[in-house]
Amino acid sequence: MKFQTSTKLQIPRGTDDIMPGEVEQWQWIEQKAREICSLYDYHEIRTPMFEHTELFQRGVGEATDIVEKEMYTFTDRGNRQISLRPEGTAGVVRSFVEKKVFGQPQPTKWYYMGPMFRYENPQAGRRRQFHQFGVEAFGSPDPLLDAEVIALGMHYFQALGLKDVRVEVNTLGDVESRLQYREKLIAYFEKHIDELSAEAKSRLYKNPLRILDSKDERTKEIAAGAPSLHDHLNDDSRKHFDTVLRALDLLGVPYVVNHRLVRGLDYYTHTAFEYTVDIPGAQAGSIGGGGRYNGLIEQFGGPSMPGVGFGIGLERVLLALGAQQVETPSKAGLDCYLITMGEEAKLVGMKVLQTMRQAGLRAERDYLDRKMKAQFKAADRLQAKTVAILGEDELKQNQINVKQLATGEQVTIALDELVAYIKQLP
Hints:
The chain is an alpha+beta fold.
């Protein structure tokens, strides 16, 4: 394949370069996630960025926007249908089943972080390559675990300093309740079938609950009058949801019950929830969500075993932090910038630099043979705490000059005392 040299190479639409200065913010929100998960005894799992397409068709649901419109799918050299992961849960559940972790003492509590891929219309906080932090807890049907998962997400937002995050919560009932409700929904929407969008019509007999999540204005108006699932819950489903709400009350988690919340995935049963916060300029205020999925493990070939989890969009978290002007870490400055004068000092300076780095100090030097004035400017730009100057005269005396840039104070010390001197500075 030949490339024209005049062709300008650009980043694919819907993706971003995360540059130095921004990366530090990402590292910070990722580290906060790890810290919070550790408090709740969740352990990290890393799954492949691509899986067999069938995994998502079976797990996420064939009648979802993700599978129908948004997946990046291709045929590999072995003629296998492969998709870049559009979400994290399916791969984590696949691993849980494939590695037979269900045979170990339960519950199993995992978390993950990494890039996901969906062919969407790029906008603020919504990219074609985006990043999620998610947790999954397997092996317990206890509604208090639902409440713990929801509270963990809120704890994470609080640790970041994000304010006014709300939880919208709903119940989708168990399989029995869903089946009864499904028939009621189909009967209702059949009366309005000529007014429904083409997409809603295609979902009517596959998964009518998805019509409740329609973005088409007329379909939304019709869906507003649909029967409520809450009127068709059996006793077990109602008790499960009531316990979740009581636990959230006890934990002080602010929530509202949204009877129309169904989420965009087919695998949810019982609890479904969404974290929302006002983000100026973003299309919607959702920054994450999740729910319980009691049939997914069995659907993937494992035993009948429940699960619950969430996924949080990290781009949207950063957008919300920026909107609230929450101070996040920026690029760290240097402990020392080393200036050398003369060929021998320049060579010895490499050892001095390495000694500082091995002692845990952030240190840098000039590699462009610039004048001393330009090197001081470089030290300022790199936010160096000190500048160490090593010339031929200092080298003969086994000494080095050190200047604190904040105060202007300068001292001459023995070369082997440099690390200890810098480390004791405030």
